Amino acid sequence: MQDKVSPAEWQARIDCAACYRLVAHYGMADMMANHISVRVPGEESFLINPYGMMYEEMTASALIKVDIEGNILGKPDYGDFDFGINRAGYVIHSAVHHAKPEIECVIHTHTWPGMAISSLECGLLPMTQTAMRFTRISYHEYEGVVLNTDEQARLLANLGDNNAMILRNHGLLTVGRTVGEAFNALHRLELSCKAQIAAMSCNTPLHPVPQKVLDETFQNYQPNVRRPYGVMEWPALLRMLDRLDPTYAE
Predict the structure, then answer these.
(1) What is the pLDDT of residue 194?
(2) What CATH number does the domain containing 216 carry?
(3) How far is Cα 147 from Cα 149, in angstroms, rounded to an integer?
(4) Which residues form the Class II aldolase/adducin N-terminal domain (predicted)?
């Protein structure tokens, strides 16, 4: 696909495929379910996974290019498998990309820690320093499999200006102005969910943190007081992928 797309789109494809491989590497994939999308620079279109491929086999050329209306604009020849896109993936991701042009990447997962926390009435607790980054995380009530576009407005309203949201009884969603930023949010959110489940499983009272400290810690994680997430981490993650299996960039 490299000679069929612009240099900007090819770079977006590389980053998107890398994100799929990283989600698989860190044990956050659900076989061929779920979705990661990356906006094509300068276009009202985005890249998303072909429904039927595993995250660990995703490559830059394998991704499908879709417009906001769900029309497939470009995909490779998959041979005997004429892969398309997942309907729920289109509904969720097109909503964000259409309403938030500043967002480059959207990630949605069904990890066991994310699903567990999404099912707890208390939701995510700011009980660790990592979780305090998400003290004001968004929540979206479960309405069934996300197949209808009329849910998009409610999903966007609940997301607001946050970069992370817990889909109740469902899973996790993160967004970012870069792929690295979105992945950073997902990785930290996943760790927060795991830590909470581990602590609550001990069946002993949790140690509370004063609200003043929670507020100050949350503020320290905000974009206006620190460098953007992913600036340091993303190049290092790509170096790790290059050592493990550089075929993501093909």
Answers:
(1) 98
(2) 3.40.225.10
(3) 7
(4) 14-197
Summarize pLDDT for 114-151 with one digit per residue, the tens: 999 999 999 999 999 999 999 999 999 999 998 889 99
Q: Which two tokens stand for residue 240?
A: 């790790």
Q: How many domains does the chain have?
A: 1
CA distances from 250 to 19, 63, 69, 152, 165 (A): 14, 11, 28, 33, 32
- What lies within 8 Å, CB to CB, of 113 at 6+ separation is 190, 193, 194, 197
- Does residue 44 sit within a domain? yes
CB atoms within 10 A of CB 218: 15
Cβ proximity of 83 and 75 under 8 Å:
yes
pTM of the model: 0.95
The tokens describing 243, both together, are 């050592």
CB 76 within 8 Å of CB 62: yes
Burial of 4 (C-beta count, 10 Å sphere; 0-12/13-18/19+): exposed
Given strand 105-109, what is the order of strands in its sheet? 72-74, 64-67, 45-48, 35-39, 105-109, 171-176, 164-167, 138-140
User: Is 221 within the bounds of a domain?
Assistant: yes
Domain range for 50 is 2-245
- Does residue 250 fall inside a structural domain? no
Q: Is residue 52 part of a domain?
A: yes
